């Protein structure tokens, strides 16, 4: 079950078929809503439909990920966004982050969501499930039934309980959250409003989310009680990890992906003394986070420094040839085109005419002055 924070309405999403070829054209709103519509309707009589995806010039089998902007302390300020992107890196599925300036949400009102071959998939758990089926990438392949059950139980705890510990603190202390995350609200919201105004409204908006935590249940407790719940979750996770490199041995699985995404929120946006608690009581979790980071996020520091979304993609080579061609077509500084020469000649002629007019005016004025003086003397 996915965290309620990821689901704000109940709009459905049709999964891509596992073994079928992906659609070559984007699914429209009409076909998604009416799969049994009359196939004999002609294109001429049917109204033009707006594509149901934002990325209409998509590349086949490339996952387009929509998430929050980067953060100076970690790549994903949302554990659900970080979970999906980490899964994509673990499975080596080709993906690209879409810089949507926080303008878009899924049909369910969520971030993250992805688009694949013209279809939208929302909710982090559903995204991972459907992409796993489509690309044949099961991170839990090889696990026993018991291990899969344990993975499901811990993942549910992280998504629906541990994650809310962090969320409760952020919603109750938006100012401290901004400071801990070193976030630039002006850049994040891509707004021209003054930074102070944006921070004020950001804090108001975050405060309004407190009601979500109350509806969830965890928000009904005091901050001290909530932090104790967090410590209990961390302790149980730490005890199960023990001295292992990853939760089920020497290779990472889906639980490692989920745990990494949530633990990063405690480590890189510290709050309520929980990082200090981890250092003293759950040091193996910190080592685990570092292990996952080194294995799948070699560009972590670059991301936090540049806040770029796609540092994992190959850098595009500069286009030298078009520039060279443009330079060759442009006249040299000491060369003059016929049009330029004509313009220069006309300009020079105009200057000469102006000079002649000035001389004539001067002569006329001198003549009038001389004549006037003579008349006065007479």
From TrEMBL:
Molecular function as annotated in GO: transferase activity
Keyword check for Nucleus: no
Keyword Transferase found: yes
One GO cellular component term: cytoplasm
Annotated spans, Disordered: 1-52, 314-355
Domain Metaxin glutathione S-transferase: 230-292
Basic and acidic residues composition-biased segments: 316-355
Domain Thioredoxin-like fold: 79-172
Bias (Polar residues) ranges: 1-12
Pfam families according to UniProt: GST_C_6 (PF17171), GST_N_4 (PF17172)
Official protein name in the record: Failed axon connections fax protein/glutathione s transferase like protein
